[in-house]
Amino acid sequence: MPIVTIQVTREGNKPGTSAVTAEEKAQLIKGVSELLLNVLNKPLEATFVVIEEVEKENWGWGGLPVDEYRKLRAEKKG
Fold first, then answer.
1. Fold of the 3-77 domain
2. Annotation marks residue 2 as catalytic
3. What's the confidence (pLDDT) of residue 78?
4. Which of 36, 37, 48, 58 is least buried, going by the fewest C-beta atoms within 10 A?
5. Which keywords, in A-to-Z order, does the entry hold (predicted)?
């Protein structure tokens, strides 16, 4: 019985959204479940997928809060 946990920051990926949409979550669940079926022969009904949304202020990257890291990275690129 595989259990897969996906952690994402709570932010929208499209204009007007502030979180991962229900449709996006459904796609993640389906895709991960099918991957485990295809690679490890784990039945869909035995696979559990948990999606955890984390507030951006609770997510760090490169020693910085994610927004600061992204800003620094963007400045370095351009």
1. Macrophage Migration Inhibitory Factor (3.30.429)
2. yes
3. 79
4. 58
5. Isomerase
